[in-house]
Amino acid sequence: MGNAARKLLGLLWGLYAWTIFAIVSLCTTLIVAVLPGLNPRRRVARAGARLIFFATGIDLTVIELGALPPQACVVVANHASYLDGVILTAALPPSFSFVIKREITAVPLAHLLLRRLGSEFVERFDRHRGATDARRIMRKAHDGEALVFFPEGTFRAEPGLMRFRTGAFAAAARSGLPVVPVVIRGARRILPAKRWLPRRDSLQVIITPSIDLTDQGPAHKAGTLLSLSRERMLEHLEEPDGGDAVRA
User: 139 forms bridges with which residues in the sheet?
Assistant: First the structure.
């Protein structure tokens, strides 16, 4: 097959994938908007996310190196693409609240869907509002709510695990919840930053064993959780270390 033909097929598949994503996302949002009960709404969102990958022919494989704890936990995952939230919605049980940057609330349909799914929004640029959001999430974790964080906070086109913010690990340390490092592989190849047309490829979600420091004292626990989680993720990510420094 010639280069021009491959480019044409890639273009057609990318447009088809966006069409599937738009239709399924809109239908899912409409159902979630009117469906009572948080758990049924989350199950619908999970089914919609799985349908997107099935209909587009993207193979999503979940590899469990360790089982998720039966109780609430804090999942931390690498962030490489706008697809990451959809990927984890499809891969994880429908019992998690996602912690998401507040800028997404400027997108009305996305905000509606995420709010109805019990997501938590965090301000990144206003310190006062960010501190208020952080305290609210701490209370959620203390009350035993399972949470998903992308501790890098954002993503870029270049491969590499970026610096971590400490919020996820502080919430886990103060609430006594175990941390589960999760690695997403393939999302950057399918839809990297600064690219609007997705490529067809496969995805892997690797769930690693949980890190439980509940038997240790509170001193330095968040920092230990961060460093152990980062080490575990780099072990399976197949991308370089993009920065060891920690963000507050």
Answer: none
Q: 3-state DSSP helix/strand/coil percent for the chain, to nearest 5?
A: 50, 15, 35
The position carrying tokens 């989350």 is 42
Residues in the chain: 248
Q: What CATH number does the domain containing 240 carry?
A: 3.40.1130.10
Domain span holding position 117? 59-247
pLDDT in tens, 79-103: 999 999 999 999 999 999 999 988 8
Q: What is the pTM of this model?
A: 0.91
Amino acid 246: pLDDT = 47
- Give the span between the Cα atoms of 29 and 19, in whole angstroms: 15
Instruction: Note whether residue 109 is domain-resident.
Output: yes
Q: Considering only 62-66, 232-236, 243-247, which range has the smallest mean pLDDT?
A: 243-247
Number of domains the chain is built from:
1
Gap between the terminal Cα atoms of the chain: 51
